[in-house]
Amino acid sequence: xxxxxxxxxxxxxxxxxxxQHREDFCKRPGIDFTRDRKISFDTLLHFQIxxxxxxVNHELLKYFNFDADTPSxxxxxxxxxxxxxxxxxxxxxxxxxxxxxxxxxxxxYQLLACDGSGFTFTRNPKDTESYYKPSxxxxxxxxxxxxxxxxxxxxKVYTDAVIKPIRKRNEFAAxxxxxxxxxxxxxxxxxxxxxxxxxxxxxxxxxxxxxxxxVIRATDxxxxxxxxxxxxxxxxxxxxxxxxxTRSCSKKKYLHPELADxxxxxxxxxxxxxxxxxxxxxxxxxxxxxxxxxGNGTYENIITNLPENEFHAEEIKEIYHLRWGxxxxxxxxxxxxxxxxxxxxxxQMITHEIWARLxxxxxxxxxxxxxxxxxxxxxxxxxVDFSIAFKTCRHFLRxxxxxxxxxVEGLIRKHTLPVxxxxxxxxxxxxxxxxxxxxxx
Length: 441
Fold this sequence. Notes:
Layout: H1 3-20, H2 41-50, H3 56-63, H4 73-80, H5 87-96, E1 109-114, E2 117-121, E3 131-132, E4 142-152, E5 157-165, H6 171-181, E6 189-194, H7 201-209, E7 213-218, H8 220-227, E8 237-246, E9 263-265, E10 282-295, E11 298-304, H9 313-321, H10 324-336, H11 347-369, E12 382-384, H12 386-398, H13 408-414, E13 416-418
Parallel strand pairs: 1-6, 6-7, 8-9
Antiparallel strand pairs: 1-4, 2-4, 3-4, 4-5, 7-11, 8-10, 10-11, 12-13
Helix pairs in contact: 1-2, 2-11, 5-11, 6-7, 11-12
């Protein structure tokens, strides 16, 4: 059995395990999925994970090989509505748990990047939690779900995610929820990496209390507020500071009044989960603050708790640079995996589809990551063409009627792209309009 066949077998076996206890994954246990249907519980999960960007009718025809007895749209919608809200999330976890992270920094550090991305779907002004009124971005208004995942930068897979309607978005809360949920594999230590939008004392404290590390970018303003009088005059620095967090503004209540300049007030409206129940409520926080140049006279501010004896400034700079991997993963998830071409209108079904796309992304990435390449004398180092690789893996996953599988690893080896690290392109940010159900192929 080849590696792609083994990984496909793992995913299908996890689906079958859920199928054996499908009463735990439907809305009406003992009623839903109890009768024979063309779209059974396991077929439904497999179909939704392997869907492409076409209309649902076209996707059904492709999945059932354009058979005249292909289930109708109505049959699909009725079966899909029976699934519980967390069915694909649980499948995501059970599938991921079958794999160990192979690539670790210094043999033990698992680099986990966190960022957010929106998924626009069919306009529905009545859904107030996901709807934005007409503005400069959209003349008609739009609905969005917001995804905040953890992405393993070295193994190129998603490990967890929080999905909320855009009006309920809270990136701070999402990150410390992900930190609390993360269970490190044996022998691994997580390092959570995030951009300036995730800078918060509560995030730092959650990572520390869970025995984890973090590398988070800070704006100049936030860095200056944190350091205060300890702000060095030099353009670059690497210093360790201690801060005492408190709800009180009265210096008389400080436990260390002689260190008043090291206290930071946390107002009542700001969430902080680790103030002690007794006393005046203080929390001691030890942070490492770095500032280094990134070219063109610009500088980056990083706040971390990584130890100085293991990580010097250049290593932390490179660790944060790797964070860009989650940005490129969003591009692959949305366009190659076709997560922008959603097939539903309700928030529940949109959430199902996003989790299904995350499962498909990881399935493709697990296969691609195990393909070995022969060393060749070339001008540039080559890497996998992920667009071709992921499309090949999706086609391979979809096969379910005894069709002859393609040489997945051979096709992945054949299609590579040169790596040119000296190239730079300006980032393009464009509003994504949902694709009409009518005009798809």
